[in-house]
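Course exercise 7: structure representation. Students receive a sequence record and must write out the corresponding structure in token form. The form below is the worked example handed out in class, using Dual OB-containing domain-containing protein (238 residues). Read each field label carefully; the graders check that inputs and outputs are placed in the correct fields and that the protein name is recorded exactly as given.

STUDENT ID: A-19
EXERCISE PROTEIN: Dual OB-containing domain-containing protein
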Amino acid sequence: MPSVTRIICLANSWKRGERCIAGITTIKGQWIRPVSDLPVGQVTKEIRQIGGTEPALLDILQIPLAKTGPDYGFESENLSILPGKWQRVGQFPATYLLKYCSNEEYILHNDLKYVEVPFLQSLPFPQRRTLQLVKVVEFYVRPLKAVYEGSQKWEGTIVTENHQRLTTSITDPVFVRKLDLGYRPKNHCLVTVSLSMPWRPEDWEGGDPCWKLIAGVIELPDSENQKIEVNNDDEIPF
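STUDENT ANSWER:
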């Protein structure tokens, strides 16, 4: 009987034609990223879907996982997926996640859009964090000209309670679909920020950069006093 781990799903985001699934354990709130044996651990539809449907944010999932997994040289959260079916065993209330939101000074290690691999490798293994949940009090979005995974690409700017600001790509397919259809939530959100696999733009100097991504968006209910201001035609706060 394989070991089964129960997590609250906080990301089901695009990754190399498949998905990256991530969440926190229901007991200790520890981040876990289930990874397959594909080159960068992306999770195929055959593995991740439950009864033909995608794992949704806030689903409580039971997943057969090993006790260890490949770290690709810099990630601390990965556990290898074992044979066996994934199960959906409940839903976690969004407001109960507030205690798991990070109070760190920065969104994932620094105030840049990326973290370099050598920096992550310089940290003790448990501190090589590549996933973080933050409470967002301002959120701006704008469509980009590019298309990703067959969908319009969107960029988001988030501002946290402690005034950290990050502008980056949105890789949450469900949230992107809502944006495509004109949906604009008005409440504060919980956002999972994830680091990408290393990718070097042309003429990049320095260590291989892992780019920060908005990998999961959960709208909080009953958030009052949120100001809605339209800055211009392309940037829409919500």
